[in-house]
Each structure stands twice: as C-alpha cells, then as structure tokens.
Amino acid sequence: MTDRPLEGFRIGVTATRRAEEQIALLQRRGAEVEWAPALSVDPNRVDAAELRAATESVLAQKVDMFLATTGIGTRAWFDAAEAWGLLDRLLETLGRAEILARGPKSVGALRGRGLRELWAPASEEFDDVLEHLRGRDLTGKRIVVQEHGQSLSMVAHALRRQGAEVTTVTVYRVEAADDPEPMFRLVDQVADRRLDAVTFTSAPAVAALMEVAGSVGRREDVITAFQAEVVASCVGPVTAAAFEMWGVPTLFPERSRLVAMVKQLETELPSRRAGLTIELAGGHQLLLHGEDVLLDGLEVRLSPAPAAVLAALVANPGNVVSRRALLAQLPSGTAGSEHAVEMAVARLRSALGTKAVQTVVKRGYRLAVAQ
After folding, report:
1. 337-346 contacts: CB < 8 A, separation 24 or more?
2. Looking at residue 228, what is its pLDDT?
3. Cβ–Cβ under 8 Å, residues 73 and 171
C-alpha cells in the first residue's frame, strides 16, 4: 500500500477534542481535510450547583443499581465530589450497588476510583445495557443513571415502566460550536457531494450536523449524499447509532479508536473508487462497481429495494444494520413497514444466496463476510 493512500480524497472532520491529532493522521496519508468543529472547544459544561444537588440526592438513600455511561462523565462526577468532600461517601454508596458500565472508558473511570462493574456489554452500546435489564423485575429498585452530554430521559422512563425508581445525574451538557460558520460550509460540501467522507467521534456531533443542515433547509440533501456517495465514518457503534434515525449507513471500526477509524478509511475510500470487492462466507466474491453487482464474476440484477438494502449492508460489511436504518434506505413509494425490509432482504438472498445475509435477532441484518 502507498504511504499516501488517501491522496486525492477530501475528508471533513467534525471533532473538537483531539482534532489536531486526527487531522494530522489524515493529512499524513495524503487527504485534504475540511475541519468544521461541531461542538464547543469546551463542550462539556458542568453546572456545579445542579450536579451537587443531584449528588446529595443520590447520597440520601440506598442505591441498588448504578449505570455508568461515559468515562469522561464518571470521572468528572467523581472529581467534583472529591472537591466538595463527598467522594468517600459517594464511592461507598455506589460500591454497595450493582454497577453496570456501557463500555471500557466508563469501566476505566470506575476502576480508577476502586469500583468494579458487575457487567458491561462487548458492543459498548447503551441499548445493550437496557436489553440486559429487560425482563427483570425492577420493582422498588433505586437506579442511578449517569447522563452523558444528551438527556437519557427516555431511558429513565423505560426503567420506571419496569418498576424502578430512577435518579438521573446530569454531569455535563454538550454545547454547539461557538462559531457555526465552518459547520454551515461543511453542510453545503456534503450536500453538494464535494467531500468523499466525514468523520464523527461523538453522537452529539451527528446531532449538531443534522440541526445545522435542517436550519438551512439542506437536511434531505445531506441524508441523500450520505446514502449515496459521501461516507459517514464513525469512531464506534455508539456514534454510528446516532445516524440510524436518519437512515444513514455508516462505517466504523471493530475497535472504537481514532487510529482504527483512519486506517479503515485508508482501505475503504480507495476501494470504493476502484470498485468494492467483498469476500463472502462460503468462498464467494461480491464485486460492486457503480450500479453493477457481480457475484463470482456473474452479473446480478437487483430491483431497487434489494439494491438499497445491499448498499446499506456493504457500507458496514459484517456489522449489523438495524431494520429501521434499512427501512429508511428503501426507495420512496415502498410500503413503510418492516415487512417491506423483510421482503427486500428475501429478494436479496434469492439473488446472492440464502446465507449471504444473516438475521441478527432483535437487532437487524448483516452481510455474511468471510472471517
């Protein structure tokens, strides 16, 4: 592989935190970078009075379960409690509870203060934490949820429906960029398809882009561009999940790391320009070049609905794409129900082989790639 595999590609970067590092990684590989920070330089604004009141509320009663959602939020809460002289009481209170963590960063923050999680999902997705609790009788259980930069009110509501008493601790709120002009430019560049990819390292950055796009009447243009030509490159599944409601296919590495995201673009963008080849399970080879689809060298003709499903699945080969995201990809005029997705998947399997697309129960579908 060339030392500059991204030569000739234009990539948008929405990060604020570690933006210089990411830009340098991309530029060293030959990319032309358009930087448009989606969030404030100091995005994680802590309301000290609100956080202290929430902390004292947590300490007022026994805690049965603690859900830690982010490393930065957990650390910030513990640091604030230490400054107020409440850390020992807080750690003692939470230490007696059942602790669930969303991923390795929150696990690290907990262990850094001597707390041990009972369980954390391999996926790093908070939905899987809720799935882990679904079906349990939570009647009378007091659950403390550490909120990240966006409200988890619907999570709290879901837990309350299972009988729990829920206390949310808002450690910080995410703020939009102080100067929105670069983001306005980025929206136009995506909508006009003048970028090959845009990178995202947080779910709030996705929300900020869509908010700006909506404010100038270009949200549909942006969504269509991401669905067709511009790659939405995310650092991990949590960030990628923020695109699901918009029906945007995303690309994210197996490990949620900045370098892994950049390395994935090194291979993905050149392959898309040359024509994408995917090795399927069972020794079959799938080649996509423009609108042409070849299976083991033979042309495969697909109607619009299965073709749209295939496009979404190959954007993340081997990773699960939800039914909701696939439904949003279907051509206009298709019946708007998950049954339409099932029919499109069935037709795709008929064209590529029944084992080419795997069903992941309660989550969606994925392309069965060779291991």
Report:
1. 340/305, 341/309, 343/305, 344/305, 344/306, 344/308, 344/309, 345/306, 345/309
2. 78
3. yes
Which tens digits make up the pLDDT trace of 189-237? 999 999 999 999 988 899 999 989 998 999 999 998 998 789 999 999 8
The end-to-end CA distance of the chain, in Å, is: 22
Q: Tell me the CATH class for 275-371.
A: mainly alpha
Q: Angle 87-95/48-59 helices, nearest 10 degrees?
A: 50
CB atoms within 10 A of CB 27: 14
CATH for 47-171 is 3.40.50.10090
| Residue 44 predicted with pLDDT over 70 | no
Residue with tokens 């909120």, as numbered in its chain: 147
With 90 as the cut, is the pLDDT of residue 187 above it? yes
Q: How many residues does the chain have?
A: 371
Helical (H) or strand (E) element with 145:
strand 142-147
Name residue, tokens 């960063």.
Answer: 105
Q: If residue 324 lies in a helix (H) or strand (E), which one and from where to where? A: helix 323-329
* Res 323: pLDDT: 86
- The contacts of residue 365 (CB under 8 Å, 6+ apart) are 309, 313, 320, 321, 323, 326, 345, 357, 358, 359
Query: Nearest 5°: phi and psi at 216?
Result: -110, 15
Between 327 and 191, whose confidence is greater?
191
Question: Where in the chain are the domains?
Answer: 47-171, 275-371
